[in-house]
Amino acid sequence: MKKRLALLALAFIASGSAFAERSQTFGDIEVHYNAISTDDLTPDVAKSYKLDRSKNRGLLTIAVLKKNKLGVGQPIKAEITASATNMSAQLSSLTLREVQEGNAIYYLGDFRVSPPDTMTFAIKVIPQGESKAHDVDFKQQYFR
Predict the structure, then answer these.
(1) pTM of the entire predicted model
(2) Of 138, 136, 134, which Cα lies nearest the Cα of 27?
């Protein structure tokens, strides 16, 4: 399991957008997120997560951390909804699946994209044990 997590983390770094670089903080909650083309994944990573590698498929990843008393982020579960809108204003709701590997908890959702395009993502996160939702919006460009 640690090997798969390491492979996925390497895929994010190799894609030019490191996973940890995109995050937003809401008090003691950190939401980390990224969206890449599944074509950027290595064949091993795509296979292990049962994803099709394609320039026409994207992958949204989300992880939620809660800072402990020492200020260190610990992975927590969350209720997450996400949607993606392309430049033609076509809206798609994403189905996210929770992945737990060791201490890591993250959410994956794949979607259709037709490069060149810019996808606008709207994510709503409700951390486990909380009722307040945190909204994250971002854009990602996809090229041929």
Answers:
(1) 0.87
(2) 134
